[in-house]
Structure formats: C-alpha cells, structure tokens
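As a warm-up, study this chain.
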Amino acid sequence: MIGTDSISSGSSYSGARVGAPDVDICICTYHRAEIVDALRAVAALEGCEGLKIRVIVADNAVQPEARTRVSNATRELGLDLLYVHAPAHNISVARNACLDAGSAEWIAFLDDDERAAPGWLKALIAEARRGNWDAVLGPIQAIYQNSAPAWLRSGDFHSTWPVFVRGRIETGHTGNVLIRRAAVQRERLRFRPELGRSGGEDVDFFYRLRDAGGCIGFTREALVYYPVPTERACLAWLLKRSFRSGQTHGARLRARSQNAMRRGADLCIAAAKAVICALLAAVHLPTPVRRNRYLTRMALHCGVVARLLGVSEIRFY
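Now compare it with the structure written out below.
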C-alpha cells in the first residue's frame, strides 16, 4: 500500500511560482540515514532562482521508518517535500511511486547515498533546454575512503559516466538524471518490477526511452558525489555488479533475437569477448588497475552469456 504525506516548511528557493512545480527531485531510500545528508545537499543548491522545486522521497522499507527523519530534515531545511511510503523492498516500485507522484515539467532522480554539487540542477536544466533533450545525464564522482585499496582509488572504478555508441547515448541511470515528464507520459514508461531486486531497472528504462525515439544528453557540469562504503570497495563487489550489468544487456539482446541463429551469434560474440578479457587480465597480472579493469569487463560479458543461456538475473539488492 503506497501512501503519501505532504511535508512543507516553505520553499527555500526564491522566485518560486504558484501551481505545479517546475522540477520534482526524486530520491528513493531504503534503511539509509544518509538520506538527510542528501536532502541537505538539495537545500544548498545554487542558481535555481525562478524555479519552483519540490522534493519527493519514496521510502521502500516495509515500515515507514524514514518518515520521522525526513520530516525533521524538511522543517530544518525549509524544503517543499512529499514523502511517499512505497513498501516493497523493490526499487522499481519506489521509482514508479515517484513517477506517479510527480507533477512537474521535469523529474530529476538522485540516490539517497549521493550528494549533489551546488550547481547540479542548474546545469541539468540549462543543458536540457539547450539541447531539447528528453533526458540529461550528469557524472557521478566516487569519493573513496583512505582505507580503500590503492588500485581502486587510482582506477576510479565506482565513478559513472555515460557510454557513447556511435556518437549517441543509448541508455542511462537514475543516480544523476533529469527527465522530461512529457516523454515518460507519452510512452507510458515504467520501471519494471521484475528487475527491482536484481538491478538494471534504470538501464532498461532508458533503453526503452531511446527505443521510443527519446534523446538523451549529457553535461559534465551536473556533478554529484558518491561516498563509496567499505563493503563496496573491493573487487568482489565490482565483479558482481558488472556481471549483473551484463545480464541486463543480455536480456535486451535475448528479447531482440528473432531466431536461434542470431541468438547463437550474440552468444559466441559475448563468450569470445569474455575469453579475450580473461587473457588480457592474465597478461596484466602485475598491474592491478589494468588487470582488474579487464576482470570486470570479463564479468560483464559472462553476464551477457548467462542471460542469453536463460539464467535468471541475480539479486543484487
């Protein structure tokens, strides 16, 4: 049962207009006290004069445990905030609750363990208007603790940048994005609940936006920071994440394969790439950054192979 609470202490943004917000900033949360720090960063945004901004927090926990801390933060920070309880332990359900609650021209997504830079939203809006994009991505810059392995910090494995294929962006993520709400409504786009525990629901969402003719832009000025927790600062976590990403791509290839011959060709290509990456990892065994980069790429291609063979997605969350 999804419920909502409107928590408003008056907008902290000057020049806000009466009526529907211009931007809904959506943050899904699950058992994380860091949501308060994420809200503090939103309250400190700069260059948003003239924009009416609302924050939507979707709590994915079984009990509405984030309501009190979100309510207290709202009063402290002076945010216009809507709390949504979407109890399912399924991130797709929480993201869809944000889409349902949104009423603004633009919908922005952040993760509850990220911190937006002061100029984040200003940069997204400026690029969206400049390029007339249906969605605009920004970079996610990882912040490592001193205890993280040296190869991990040197290789910057947790930062996220878009991948360009033949000069265009094919898919995206919800860690740092601005989406035109009209495009979502036009194509009736939703996050798929069957991917809500394995991960990859956002990649799948943006693939379908592109398939429908949507255009995705990027600006490096819209920066958010991601403090990497200790349990994720290791090769095992990176391999698991990369394997799961490969499964998401494999599912897309599987859905597009019209016959066994095409699927067999995709399978052979992915398997060959996995073998090549394994060999390159062996060649670069003495160089941790290159070795582990090839190992994570190998894991991705193994995930593609697994999904093309019919193996179900692993549960990542």
